[in-house]
Amino acid sequence: RASPRAPPTARPSGRGEMAAGCERLRDRHGARWTLPFRPPLCLACAVETLGDGGASLVRKKHALCRLRDALAWRALPVVQLLAPDERGCLCLIGTLFGKVLVQLIVELKSEQYLRCILDESQKELCKATTRRGSLPTFTLLGKLADAVPVFADILVVEHSNLVDHLLVGLMYPNEGVKAAICYLYGKLYSSPVGTEKLSAHFEERLCGLFLNTFGHAQTKELQINCLGLLKELLKSDRFVSILMNNPKPEEESENSDLLEGENPLPLILKKLLLTRDEMLQAASSHCMAAVLVHSPSRYAPAFIHADVPEFLFECLMCNSEILIWSVYCSLLLLTEERLFFSKCHTVYGIESLVRSLQNVLHLNNVELHKQGLLLFTEIVKRQPVEIKLFTNRGICIDAIDVLMKTVDCPVLEVVLEAVKAVAAFLRKDHLSSPPVPYENLQKLLEAVLKRCVDLSPPHCSNKHEVSQEILCTLTKLLVISDVSLSSGTCCVCRLAVELQSDPMAQENAFTAPCSESKETLSNFSEFLLRICDSLCIPMVMNYLERAVSSSVMEVFISALNTLFTVVPNMRDKFSKKLEGVSSLFTVFSALLYSNPALNQACSSFLCNLCLSLYSATEKERTCSQEEMSELLQKSLPQLNYTIAESLLLLAENPEPLSLDQSLCNHQHCFILLLYFAYTLGDRFVPEAELFLAIRNFLLLAQDHRDWPPTYVLRAVLYLLAVCQDKGKALDSRILDNLPDLSLVYIHCPLLLKFFLHYPELMGRFGHQVLQLWFSWEDCNRVETEEAAFGTSDQLNNTNPLLPILKSNSSILLILLDLVCSSSVEVAQKVLVALRTFLEKNEDVFVCDLLRNQFLQILQQLLVESSSVSLQANRNLPILLSLLFLVQLRSKGMRELDSTDFKLLHQVSNLCGKCRPKDIDLLQPSLNFLYCSLHQTTPCSQQRAVAVLLSNVSLLELLQKVLECTWMWSFPSEPTYLSSEDALLSSGWLLAASLLIYQHRYNTEVRAILVFGSMDFIVQFLRAILRQNFSSLLVTIVQNTAQGATQSQPSSLEDAALHPLTTQQVFSLVVSLQNLLVHKDLLLSQAVVACLETLLEYLYVRNQDVALHVASQPWHRFLLLTLLNGSQKSILQPEILRLMTLFLKYQSSNIISQKEIGQILQEVAEANLLELPEATSQALHLFLCQIQSSHCQVEPVQAQTIQTLLEHLPEQTSTCAKHQDIMYPFAGQMPLIRKVRVGAVTEVEGILNLLLLTIFSQRQTAQKVG
């Protein structure tokens, strides 16, 4: 402890004085020397003990440990005590040399003390008897160089003689000394000053000695310190050059087993790779990368010749992230040397790389993922075509799986590298080994595109630059990723195209001969088109709409261009899919770029697109396709004008004697681009400006009498048609001397409107344009679309001729002329158009105009043609069908004029010249005659009947047609009316009408229709079931010759019912009952009417038979079947009429009093005002029948009946109205159950016709069935 008598400023002045003072005042050094430790430490005592030569070693060690702890934990008080006394510090340094000196010097921060240490070190090295004893000195210098940055500079500048001791120490056979010296060298060369000062020293003296030491190192300590020194040396390009060009000494070339080769460094590093020590392997591969990074082409061959890549690939099977990273870096640098691939190191190591990537993906190290993918990308991209990389299909599939997993990585940078890897991987030489894994490739591409869609704007707008790089790389999946490579690195589309020329890839071997495999090239190519259409193209277009990038556009346009050849048979379909996707304006604008690659890509794409669109629309004009292809290929790359300049270009006048056709070629090329752009809906030029430019172009062509080629002229006409509404008045001169219209015709509604809109053009080209229009039109498609669209706007869009006809009815005359003068196919199409027009437009003037034209045509045909020629005329049936449609279109009752009667006369004469088998002529003719009888007033009707009945040939023909009812056979279950069915139906309808009106007007008859006995009529009705009502009438089998003697009645009942028999009556009733079971509305109403007529006839002839027939128990079952448990069926008119019939003939066993009450209750609950007219009439008859039959009804029911009768609407005339008439069209009209309800009157008329034949008592010379 400090003595109070001790001077406060006393301090030791030297080792001797301090020792003496401490010896005398051991316990009285003073409090200022005491450091606050537990136990307290007296710094003076500690120094004194260390300097005391007689102190024991244990005491010195204890004092040294306390002093070391003091410097470690309380360095500031120690420095404050020692720093003011320079001599004391020097004394302590000398005492502590080699112990805690390093830490002390660091804290003192003075170069003076560093020089002191170097001086002492020099003395120690000089007096050391062996280099082993110099180890502490080398260790101390190394630690000081590590702890004090300026120490290395002071050493090499002021104490360079110490470096000689380092060289001597490296030659000493002790690896501990060598390790310490290498460590110190590493620190010296880590300093820029040391690197500069020791540069010559390394080249002249150290390099060979260091490589020898490194090569023979056995201990890990020496190997690590050598690697540390090598790492510092490899930072200098000069040192790398010295190391890699340092040959092996000749005296070692024969005896050394380690160094085999010209350069020992690659072999030394290779040796470390074999140690299986991951730390040494990582350091070794890191040093390789440090060498190669200076110049891969210069230094890589040495490592490759030493087979270092083989061992690098083997190191990838470890779990050390540091080692894997180092190996990735080294291999990545080696890929820049072609020798790396020619020595087949990649073929050997690709499996290890794929396995490594599989393991790395489980680690949470993004940089490692990126580096591994980058290495994979470079290998598959640089691999020579002649050397197969994936010799094992399993490794190829594993590589695809790895790429799919990396594509799904959530880190954007990894996804970018993965997309690049996929683009490089998709090469024919990587995948053409059979069998090609097409399904795996499809999954990979789908995953890439879907991932890129997720990462494309606006999904990741904050990553704009990365997104652009992804899109650019993505589109390179579709084209060559680097055109400068001689190997031709291919895209996926180019891959599909190249595989088409490989028979093994098409067959895809290892597939059983009789089995179907999905892994085919055709399936892959079709998938490629679908995925590009659904994902890739929309994504890139969406990006280009936000930010135009020339690089992305170039690759994208090249991609689209390549897609034309992926699936050749889908080329036209792909071209149509580009509608609305690829803006020709965007592509055309890209031609203005100074980028030659972009210009070439755009030119090629536009050429392929235009040719594909042209071939799809002009399949029959292939001769001009070669000329167009030559024009586009030659002129498109030169068409670098703006839109305004291009429009002015069309008005330029080429020199008359100029041999240079470039101006004309540019004009024609631009017109073709405009044409195809407008067909795709891309109207990038205003219509008014375009119309003016095209007009000027045509006028110049007129002046020079030099028309452009036909394919250019077709484009010109189309553009005129498109712009006709926006342009000024048409100058008719522009189409003077126009070549044959069929050569330049384009099947387009706008072109049709263009020629028919202007009177001067319609007069010159109307007939030919309509002829061409219907020649190109698809009749079946038009009829299908007309049936599908209900509104007029939709129909006009489907058939553009309809609005033109409505605005200009004179076109109808041209169409009628086409019906007669054109081919059958064209005439049929005209008929479809006219029929649709007549159905949708109520224009009486048009109908009158058509009748006059029909009359002239028919008169001419009948005068000029014989019966044989009429039957051979295939256009005549179509003309007659149209005539019938015109007549049918005239609704309401109207007076027949002279034209109508002339038409009746001509058509009836035409029918007389036909045979029953001339169905095409007779069907529309009979329909027309029948329609003419019913759609007129009674006065005109009487005259029309007289005209028809006076035509003997018509009646004879009708006789023959009706006789065919018993001769023709019919299918058992027809779905639609056959032509024979339709003709028979028309014949019976006309015969029924003539019969009714002849009786009504008592018209004179010049011919008789003769049929067989009543057996055939009954058989006719019974056969209706066997034929499933396949016709509006049924088949009658005639088994009695005409004029045969009729059989006499066999009983009194039969005599009363003559010409019927009782058996025939019951047979007829059963047949009619069975027809009711069909529950067909039209049929049911007709059958009920027949039953009414039959019972009336029976009641007059034999009341007992009539009442017996009406009371058959089967009628009740029939009524219950019709009701079918539904009360709503009661209000059906045919059921009400049937119940009225039973009440009329007192059939109480059929409908009881209780059931009548239920019916009345149901009727009372119905809304009588909403009932249809037919139902209201039937209900009125039913209620009146209840009152008149004196049924025993309760007073409440009677009051209900009276109330219902009062509330029913007033009844109109019950005579049949022929508003909706059923006309049988062969092959078109569905079965009777699908016909409108209004047609019931005519079916009823036919059945009544048969009953009238049976029941009539007229005194007439006719026998009509």
TrEMBL record:
InterPro entries linked: ARM-type_fold, Immune_Signaling-Apoptosis_Reg
Source domain of life: Eukaryota
Coiled-coil regions listed: none
GO biological process: meiosis I
Record protein name field: Meiotic double-stranded break formation protein 1
Organism: Phasianus colchicus
